[in-house]
Every structure is written in C-alpha cells, then in structure tokens.
Specification:
- The protein is an alpha/beta fold.
- It folds into 3 domains: about 90 residues, Arc Repressor Mutant, subunit A (Orthogonal Bundle); about 110 residues, 3-Layer(aba) Sandwich (D-Maltodextrin-Binding Protein, domain 2); about 100 residues, D-Maltodextrin-Binding Protein, domain 2, CATH 3.40.190.
- It is about 40% helix and about 25% strand.
- It is built from 9 helices and 13 strands.
- Strand 3, helix 5 and strand 4 form a beta-alpha-beta unit.
- Helix 1 packs across helix 2, helix 1 crosses helix 3 and helix 1 packs across helix 4.
- The protein is elongated and about 70 Å long.
C-alpha cells in the first residue's frame, strides 16, 4: 500500500456505524435510504480493506459485532465527527466555530445545569448544535467509551482509568426538610437526628449508595419510606411532609413545582462531598469544538456555583 493511501471511504464508515447501532442490514438500509445489497457489499469491502471481520452474520437473528467491530466503533464515530467538523470549517472560512457536540449529563444535574449551559454557548457560537442525553452514571460512561458521547457532566463516582475527569466544584451533601419540620429552625442537623425520621430516597445508581453511606458514621443506614428517580419528585415529597431527603446540588429555589416549600440544612458532621466535573474518554482525542465547549463549561459551572 502506498504511504497515505486509504482503501476505505467515509461512506463505508457511516454504513458501518449505522449498521452497528441497529445490528441489521435491513434496518440499516432503511435508515440510510439505500438498498440492502448495497450496504452488504460496502461493509464486506470495508472488512476486506481492514483485514478483519466486523460483524457475525446470523441467518435468522440479524447481526452481532465481533470484538474487532466493537473496538473500531468508537474510532469510526470519532473520525466521522472530525470529517463533519472539517466540512463545517470549509464552509465557514470566516473562522466561525461550528460542529455538533454529543453532550451527556447526569439525570439529576440536567435541569439546573444543562439548559443554561447550552443556551449561553450557542449565543456566542451560532454554528454549533447539540445532541443531548440525560442518563445514569453507568450509561454516561458507556457512551463515552463507545464514542456515542463527546463529554459528560457528572460526578466523580465509580470512574475507571479509561475516563479522563476534570474536577470543577466540590458539592457537600445537605438535608432538605418540610418547612414546618421540627428541625427546620435548627442551624445544623446531625445524622443521628434523622434516624427515626421517614427517608425519601433519590433512587439513582451510585447516588443512593453515596447518600446511604453517610450514615455509616452513626452505625445505621436509613430504610427509605419513599423513593423516586426524579429529584423534583423527591423535593415535592419532602415539601409535602412525607419525610426528609439528602441532595447535594445547590438550589436557587426552595419551592417545588406544586408551590410547596422546603428548607435546606447543613450537617453538623464532616460529610464526604462529591465532585462535579467533565468526563471524557481517554481513547478519543476531542475535536476543537468539543475542547472549546469543555473550557466554556469549566468557567460557567464554577461561576454558577459561586452565585448560588
């Protein structure tokens, strides 16, 4: 092979990525608006060019990715994103920043963080568009590893060596109580004060373990009386007198969507804080537009935290 000569095309890579997502030649052909034989031939040629098998063909049950196919999927997605950015740059020779960013955000962080973040960035980078995903920690990390996400806003919980994490702000946990609760006028609340109170748990992976582990210092973990995966529902249950809860992202409003009030109290004890930051895959080099947005996030989130 000549130096620098490529024996595959971006079109073939796109066919590969779409087929890997749906694991069916028929579904991929329908999604790409081409014939099934065309996509089958293109992917066979791609496998021949690479010298590896990307898919296992099952006669009655579609396709599955080989290990080589799984290993190449993230790189293929990143290469296609770089190609899109190059095309956008060519169209905007005035130096404008453009491109698409796949942004993930922990589901509990998304409402108070993501809308303002995107709005402010687009205000000064009109050529940028976003694909957003609000998800649990495990799904965010999976998206970073397979190239579905460019970056994710999340906590420093259960990160692996393959994930690069830029810490931004430390967020200690706090108690939220009904406005008329017996502890609502206390300056601080002890973990021991809550042991006999009904607990409304934020039922998210990693978060539930983190909050429950705070009580190891007093010997007994709380048994939830109520639980919800939605922070706003948790706050609503507390404000309507069903119990207390523990959260850690700062709030600007102490009123729920149904108009009920709650109060926030800090702990008397030293409690373990979580760290909010930016997670990215170490295996994928971020595109220029992603680097610019990550830098913007650092400034904006730290400013947001100072002003709460």
């Amino acid at each position: 092979m000549e130096v620098g000569q490529l024996h595959y095309s971006l079109r073939q890579l796109r066919y590969f990525v779409v087929t890997a997502e749906v694991l069916s030649f028929t579904a991929a052909a329908r999604k790409l608006h081409i014939s099934q034989p065309s996509i089958s031939t293109a992917l066979a040629d791609l496998e021949a060019s690479f010298g590896v098998q990307l898919f296992i063909r099952h006669h009655a049950s579609g396709l599955s990715l080989t290990q080589a196919g799984r290993d190449m999927l993230g790189q293929a997605r990143n290469l296609l994103k770089n190609a899109e950015e190059l095309q956008s740059a060519a169209r905007e020779m005035d130096g404008g920043m453009s491109g698409a960013i796949a942004l993930g955000c922990l589901v509990s962080l998304a409402p108070p963080v993501m809308p303002a973040l995107i709005s402010r960035f687009i205000a000064s980078h009109a050529g940028v568009n976003f694909r957003t995903e609000e998800a649990h920690q495990d799904d965010l990390l999976r998206g970073l590893r397979d190239g579905t996400l460019d970056l994710a806003l999340t906590y420093s919980l259960d990160l692996t060596d393959e994930i690069a994490f830029t810490p931004l702000v430390s967020l200690p946990p706090y108690v939220i109580l009904p406005k008329l609760h017996r502890l609502a006028r206390a300056r601080f609340v002890s973990l021991a004060d809550l042991l006999d109170e009904p607990y409304v748990m934020l039922d998210l992976p990693h978060s539930r373990e983190y909050f429950a582990a705070l009580f190891d210092a007093v010997g007994t973990r709380p048994v939830p009386a109520f639980r919800s995966s939605q922070p706003e529902v948790v706050r609503g249950m507390v404000a309507n007198g069903l119990g207390y809860s523990i959260l850690n992202f700062p709030l600007k409003s102490l009123k729920t969507v149904d108009g009920a009030d709650f109060v926030i109290k800090q702990f008397k004890e030293e409690v373990t804080a979580t760290t909010l930051g930016i997670a990215q895959s170490r295996a994928l080099k971020p595109r220029v537009v992603v680097q610019r947005f990550a830098a913007f996030c650092e400034t904006h989130i730290r400013e947001l935290h100072r002003n709460v």
